[in-house]
Amino acid sequence: MKSGARALGVAESYAPDAERSTLAGAVVRADRVVDDFCFRSATVGGTDVTEAAIDIWESLDRPDVRYVLVAGVALAWYNVLDLGRLHDAVERPVVAVSFEASGGLEAAIEREFAGDARDARLAAYRALPERHALDVGGDTVYVRSVGCDDPDAVVRAYTPEGGRPEPLRVAREAARAADDYRRTPDA
User: Fold this and answer.
1) Residue ranges of domains in the chain
2) Cross-referenced Gene3D superfamilies, in alphabetical order (predicted)?
3) What is the DSSP track for the chain?
């Protein structure tokens, strides 16, 4: 992959008692140069994270971005991301990367939600592509993708060290800083 190839990383941050999660979008080149940022929010425990991610893409207006990487699929406390809808909106390969082994989210969704809220989240979760483990820099990450022929190569290309792709690392740090600032009383 060329050093100037750009990816948009989307990650989040929120406090346990927060009603909104801060989402950050970071445009990062494969050579680790950061090009751009955008911030939005999503409802903690809501169903609006896909719209927020699409809004980040549209607001950035960066036709030079080749890939969209997302930190997980259930941001903002089970606000399940629709990878297919995101892919359709951005017209780019979408790769979701999670960082912990798990047996899946179905049991947790069933435990935390009831009725239509539970059913909608379960349907969204079950519609996601399967994930697979990938060893990157001695760490294991878990990858799902839509519209990407070789998601493992994309993850590796944007992971210069450790197990977190640089666009996601930068977006996570930006989301944390923005969330801290947003919660500052005099901000």
Assistant:
1) 6-182
2) archaeoglobus fulgidus dsm 4304 superfamily
3) --TT-EEEEEEEE--TT-SEEEEEEEEEETTS-EEEEEEEEEETTSS-HHHHHHHHHHHH--TTEEEEEEE-SEHHHHEE--HHHHHHHHTS-EEEEE-S--S-SHHHHHHH--HHHHHHHHHHHHTSPP-EEEEETTEEEEEEEES-S-HHHHHHHT-SSTTS-HHHHHHHHHHHHHHHHHT-TT-
The series of mean pLDDT values per 10 residues for the chain, 187 residues long, is 92 92 97 96 96 98 98 96 98 97 94 96 96 94 97 96 93 96 80
